[in-house]
Design a protein that fits this description.
With 222 residues, the protein is an alpha+beta fold. It has 7 helices and 8 strands. It has one domain. A 6-stranded mixed beta sheet has the order 1-8-7-6-3-2. Helix 1 crosses helix 4, helix 2 packs across helix 4 and helix 4 packs across helix 6. The chain is globular, with a radius of gyration of 17 Å.
Length: 222
């Protein structure tokens, strides 16, 4: 079992020890399994957090659902933040792993201060390359407060707060990569960029509260 799979298993163990958390996990599983439910998490969002061998989310192991739920909860709580990164050649998502040179070429013209470097060898590496930025960028984190949107059909919308990130270089994951790997990068590396299959942009996830997430690396005691 890999480190990220072990992390997902431990996340599931923590959840099932708490009645409210277990109920929330069941809700998340329902959201990602019922495409006609208006409460659904959007597909691009699920794919950005993780893709499990291109299987539909309803077929995921519960450990991966738990990992997705943990990332989603972090975003809702403002512990994690995310931002989309675009480029003129990203439409349709990346090619397969064997097409690394073309993927690298398509990532060579990202908008703004962002630069991607693809590992063309990737011999059992922990990631597919890096995403970096050479000047401060702004992301938004959830404040924990929600307001009713002007359009009542949209429901409650979270109030977002701006956060500035200094220049940085973070792991890049291309194509299929499970939620557990995204969660591990957030806890261990502090951030990760994802370019999932079929996505027209990269999604950068950042851990803004590493102190509060370090306990996820410790196995729960029973």
């Amino acid at each position: 079992m890999s480190v990220h799979e072990s992390l997902a298993r431990d996340a599931l163990k923590r959840i099932i020890r708490d009645v409210a958390a277990t109920a929330t996990l069941a809700e998340v599983q329902d959201w990602i399994s019922s495409p006609d439910d208006p409460r659904d998490l959007e597909r691009w969002y699920i794919d950005a957090i993780g893709q499990v061998h291109m299987s539909p989310p309803r077929q995921w192991p519960m450990e991966q659902v738990a990992a997705l739920a943990r990332v989603h909860a972090g975003l809702v709580a403002g512990v994690f933040a995310m931002i989309r990164v675009g480029g003129p050649s990203l439409d349709g998502g990346p090619g397969r792993d064997a097409d690394r040179e073309r993927n690298a070429s398509r990532l060579s013209e990202l908008y703004g201060p962002f630069r991607a470097a693809v590992d063309l060898e990737q011999n059992q590496a922990d990631d597919d390359g890096t995403l970096s930025w050479h000047e401060p960028i702004r992301v938004e984190r959830a404040s924990g407060v929600s307001l009713l949107a002007p359009c009542s059909r949209a429901g409650m919308k979270p109030v977002m707060l701006p956060v500035t990130l200094d220049p940085w270089s973070v792991p890049l994951e291309i194509g299929s990569s499970p939620p557990s790997r995204t969660l591990l990068h957030l806890v261990e590396d502090g951030a990760v960029a994802r370019w999932p299959y079929d996505a027209d942009w990269l999604t950068l996830f950042v851990n803004l509260e590493p102190y509060w997430t370090k306990d996820l690396l410790e196995s729960p005691a029973f």
